[in-house]
């Protein structure tokens, strides 16, 4: 991050886009996407799925005025992430929830595409 001679971050540096970090898990019957969105209300996050792509976007703003900062390092502004969905994803039943700065997206697998284990007997 760019710093002035006094060690302060420049306003331009903290006002640009930022990228939330994401973990993606595959389970037997669903995919789980967990995205860190600290300081972003779930009401300020938009999710959509179109043509095999899950899109997430939102923004983080501060309540303080520019002149009130002695130092600013936390990124503010908008974010956007796109994820290619596998063919097995059931986009009609995707569910999302946000709590404590973490967005959780559950992407069920289509039933006909789930692996059906067949026991082999003796």
What do you see in this structure?
- The chain has 122 residues and is mainly β.
- It has a domain at 17-61 and 75-110: Immunoglobulin-like, CATH 2.60.40.
- It has one helix and seven strands, in the order H-E-E-E-E-E-E-E.
- It has a four-stranded antiparallel sheet, with no helix packed on it. Strands 3-4-5 form a three-stranded antiparallel sheet, with no helix packed on it.
- Strand 6 (95-99) and strand 7 form a beta hairpin.
- It is elongated.
- It starts with 10 loop residues before the first helix and ends in a 14-residue tail after the last strand.
Topology overview:
Elements: H1 11-14, E1 22-26, E2 30-36, E3 45-50, E4 53-60, E5 77-84, E6 95-99, E7 102-108
Antiparallel strand pairs: 1-2, 2-7, 3-4, 4-5, 6-7
- Portion of residues in beta strands equals 35-45%
Write down the Rg. Answer: 20 Å
**Cα-to-Cα separation, first versus last residue:** 64 Å
Which CATH top level class of one domain fits? Mainly Beta
Mean pLDDT: 83
Ranges where pLDDT stays below 50 over 5 or more residues in a row are: 1-9
Briefly, what is this?
By secondary structure, the protein is mainly β.
Properties at a glance:
disordered N terminus, 7 strands, mainly beta, 3% helix, four-stranded antiparallel sheet, 122 residues, Immunoglobulin-like, 1 helix
